[in-house]
């Protein structure tokens, strides 16, 4: 059976819509989801689980997490949330966006071994609480090696992101996973990817147990959609004009030739499936299928987004290469898309009925 997964990133702890965990988890289950991917804040656990950490906003325009400075305390929040998930029958995938605090302690991670050690501290926290059986897999860094999430792998601020298949970054991934796997050998490990998702075939699959590609029709790796509408993905974090551009041009551009944009998405899905087959690694996708950023604003209709997401689910499910599929990266209670319960249930039923990919050693680690 394929899992129906969604991404709750750092919103689970920071966004006010998630304040009542029992309520939002009941809503999650009612919509057919059985797995959730969250930020475990491993650097904050490792460097002071009892401390109140003052986090700085990574953006003020998007609806994930806090858009103003916020103080968080990871003990006992992480174990309590994971326990609540397990009580509801929801598995947890751990990741990290390595949120920046006022002391920027994430920059203490100066080696792959230290990267592994902060994850060991986090898994030990869950182990002491008897919660390791609730963890499905560990993604050591969201969308590695994007500078916004992994600044500690760069020697200086600024500049372009390095390609993921750079030998030094492949070595970082291998050594950090080896460090944490030595302490917790039974869990599956990966590094999720967005930039360079089309170059997965250039990676050595040996260190990872699965691939977690983030796939959007609009992403520059897949199409020129953003260039055509004049949207600046990097500037969108703090520039309200970028949502005005989406409202004015995004749906109109898609509707002018939907078959073109659908073909690009379908081609990307099947290209990644071919890499998964060749490398004998299962796939999990938690951020997908239409557009990277979207929210509830005048002029931003969800209809075309839902259309592309339904296509992505259908195509990914048909490949038999995915161990878990998400309906979108907007499948959380802060978005009005959450209110369309039947849409979520229908897609998640397709996901659960999809052919499984448990036919090799790597995939079996996800059972």
Secondary-structure blueprint:
Elements lengths: L2 E7 L1 H4 L6 H10 L4 E5 L2 H7 L4 E3 L14 E3 L1 H14 L3 E5 L16 H17 L6 E5 L27 H17 L5 E2 L24 E2 L8 H5 L11 H16 L1 H22 L3 E3 L2 E2 L13 H17 L2 E4 L15 H12 L8 H4 L3
Parallel strand pairs: 1-2, 1-11, 2-5, 5-6, 6-7, 8-10, 9-11
Antiparallel strand pairs: 3-4
Helix pairs in contact: 3-5, 5-6, 9-10, 10-11
Identify the notable features of this structure and list them briefly.
367 residues; alpha/beta; TIM Barrel; 7-stranded parallel beta sheet; two-stranded antiparallel sheet; globular
Task: Write up what this structure looks like.
By secondary structure, the protein is α/β, with parallel strands linked by helices. The protein has one domain (3-364): Glycosidases (TIM Barrel, Alpha-Beta Barrel), CATH 3.20.20. Helix content is 40%, strand content 11%. It is built from twelve helices and eleven strands. Strands 7-6-5-2-1-11-9 form a seven-stranded parallel β-sheet. A two-stranded antiparallel sheet has the order 3-4. The longest helix has 22 residues, at 258-279. The protein starts with a strand and ends with a helix. The model has no long low-confidence stretch (mean pLDDT 96).
């Amino acid at each position: 059976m394929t899992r129906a997964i969604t991404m709750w990133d750092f919103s689970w702890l920071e966004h006010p819509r998630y304040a009542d965990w029992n309520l939002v988890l009941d809503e999650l289950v009612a919509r057919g989801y059985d797995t959730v991917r969250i930020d475990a804040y491993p650097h904050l656990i490792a460097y002071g689980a009892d401390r109140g950490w003052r986090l700085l906003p990574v953006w003020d325009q998007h609806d994930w997490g806090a858009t103003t400075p916020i103080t968080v305390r990871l003990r006992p929040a992480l174990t309590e949330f994971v326990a609540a998930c397990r009580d509801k029958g929801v598995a947890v995938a751990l990741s990290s966006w390595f949120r920046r605090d006022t002391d920027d302690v994430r920059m203490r991670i100066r080696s792959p071994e230290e990267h592994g050690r902060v994850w060991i501290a986090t898994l030990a926290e869950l182990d002491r609480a008897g919660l390791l059986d609730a963890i499905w897999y560990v993604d050591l860094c969201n969308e590695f090696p994007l500078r916004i999430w992994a600044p500690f792998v760069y020697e200086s601020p600024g500049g372009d992101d390095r390609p993921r298949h750079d030998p030094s970054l492949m070595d970082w991934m291998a050594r950090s996973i080896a460090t944490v796997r030595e302490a917790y050998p039974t869990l599956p490990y990966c590094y999720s990817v967005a930039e360079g998702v089309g170059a997965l075939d250039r990676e050595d699959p040996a260190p990872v147990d699965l691939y977690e590609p983030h796939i959007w029709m609009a992403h520059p790796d897949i199409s020129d959609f953003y260039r055509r509408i004049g949207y600046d993905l990097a500037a969108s974090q703090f520039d309200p004009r970028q949502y005005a551009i989406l409202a004015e041009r995004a749906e109109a551009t898609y509707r002018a030739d939907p078959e073109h944009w659908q073909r690009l998405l379908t081609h990307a899905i099947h290209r990644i499936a071919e890499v998964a087959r060749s490398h004998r690694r299962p796939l999990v996708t938690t951020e997908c299928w239409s557009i990277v950023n979207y929210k509830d604003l005048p002029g931003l209709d969800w209809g075309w987004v839902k259309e592309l997401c339904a296509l992505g689910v259908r195509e990914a499910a048909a490949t038999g290469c995915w161990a878990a599929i998400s309906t979108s990266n907007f499948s959380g209670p802060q978005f009005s898309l959450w209110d369309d319960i039947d849409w979520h249930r229908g897609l998640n039923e397709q996901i659960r009925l999809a052919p499984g990919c448990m036919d090799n050693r790597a995939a079996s680690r996800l059972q």
